[in-house]
């Protein structure tokens, strides 16, 4: 890290972190990723999303870390669990998983002051061909976005890479939710859009920390939030998928903070 550029805030309000800050983010990201690894063994037909969240709550404590979502804007759970046509922010509860359900589990921890935010897709029972395709394209779109991350590129390059990939597979990118800067805070500038035009938006700089978390729908991109004020669903009831990594910009690309220690970020190996 070039110290001339560390500890600065850009014109767009984006914090440029110092080299030493990467270690804190790696530790936090690993906590979130390990919990996402562990919960995979519990996902099955007959389980409730509340049971999965109970496990996550317990593991957060046992690992000596802290949930970022419990108490966040009144949210009361350690995870968001979004099943089938739920796009994001699904509230865990007594919903019973049935054969073929696909679900996103999103976990954020605060570890030693640093935020680690990640989500992945899981399957209960037998995965349908169309759901498998949706999950694969969503996962790969996140990786295309991450590949566009390097100093000198722009946030618009990330969004454009994701959008081109998703729409090339005749699926749609959700516009109503985006990724975000993070670090010692949960949600910081910039909004990381998962669509856009190359060369637009803030220029990426070494030391920026943010999430990329594309939500992809099999049908149309429009969403609506249910009466609980959290659960976002596809308006056309089509299936939706999401993957999220927290990353940091390095001199020649990026580092992923939320890599799976068990190598199981993608569910369909
Ligand atoms: N983890 C989500 C994100 O990716 C935010 C969840 S906020 C909650 O930004 F309150 F719904 F948990
Ligand atoms: Co996030
Ligand atoms: Co998240």
Q: Please, what is the average pLDDT? A: 96
Number of helices: 4
Backbone CA Rg: 17 Å
Report the major sheet.
Answer: 4 strands, antiparallel
Can you identify the CATH superfamily?
A: Creatinase/methionine aminopeptidase superfamily
Approximate helicity band? 10-25%
Q: Report, as a whole number of angstroms, the end-to-end distance.
A: 36 Å
What CATH calls the topology is Creatine Amidinohydrolase
Any idea how many domains? 1
Q: Estimate the global geometry from the Cα principal axes.
A: globular
What portion of residues belong to β-strands?
A: 25-35%
Category from helices, strands and their pairing: alpha+beta
Ligand roster? 2-amino-4-trifluoromethylsulfanyl-butyric acid, cobalt (II) ion
Taken in chain order, the helices and strands follow as: EEHHEEEEEHHEEEEEEEEEE
The CATH architecture name reads Alpha-Beta Complex
At the first level of CATH, the class is Alpha Beta
> How many E-type strands?
17
Spans of at least 5 consecutive residues whose pLDDT stays below 50 are none
Binding site for substrate: 89, 187
Cofactor: Co(2+); Zn(2+); Mn(2+); Fe(2+)
EC number: 3.4.11.18
Domain Peptidase M24: 24-250
């Amino acid at each position: 890290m070039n110290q001339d550029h560390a500890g600065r805030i850009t014109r767009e309000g984006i914090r440029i972190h110092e080299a030493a800050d990467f270690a804190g983010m790696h530790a936090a990201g690993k906590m979130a990723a390990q919990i996402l690894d562990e919960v995979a063994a519990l996902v099955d037909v007959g389980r409730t999303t509340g049971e999965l969240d109970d496990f996550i709550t317990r593991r957060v404590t046992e690992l000596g870390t802290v949930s970022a979502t419990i108490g966040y804007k009144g949210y009361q759970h350690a995870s968001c669990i979004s099943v089938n046509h739920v796009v994001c922010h699904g509230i865990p509860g007594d919903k019973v998983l049935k054969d073929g359900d696909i679900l996103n589990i999103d976990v954020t921890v605060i570890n030693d002051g640093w935020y680690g935010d990640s989500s992945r897709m899981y399957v209960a029972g037998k995965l349908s061909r169309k759901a498998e395709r949706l999950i694969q394209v969503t996962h790969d779109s996140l990786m295309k976005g991450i590949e566009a991350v390097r100093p000198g590129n722009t946030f618009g390059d990330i969004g454009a890479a994701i959008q081109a990939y998703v729409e090339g597979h005749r699926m749609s990118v959700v516009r109503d939710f985006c990724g975000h800067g993070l670090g010692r805070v949960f949600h910081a500038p910039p909004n990381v859009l998962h669509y856009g035009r190359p060369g637009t938006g803030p220029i990426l700089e070494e030391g920026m920390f943010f999430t990329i978390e594309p939500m992809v729908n099999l049908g149309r991109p429009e969403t609506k939030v249910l009466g609980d004020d959290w659960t976002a669903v596809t308006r056309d009831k089509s299936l939706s998928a999401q993957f999220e990594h927290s990353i940091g910009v390095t001199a020649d690309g990026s580092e992923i903070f939320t890599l799976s220690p068990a190598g199981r970020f993608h569910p369909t190996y």
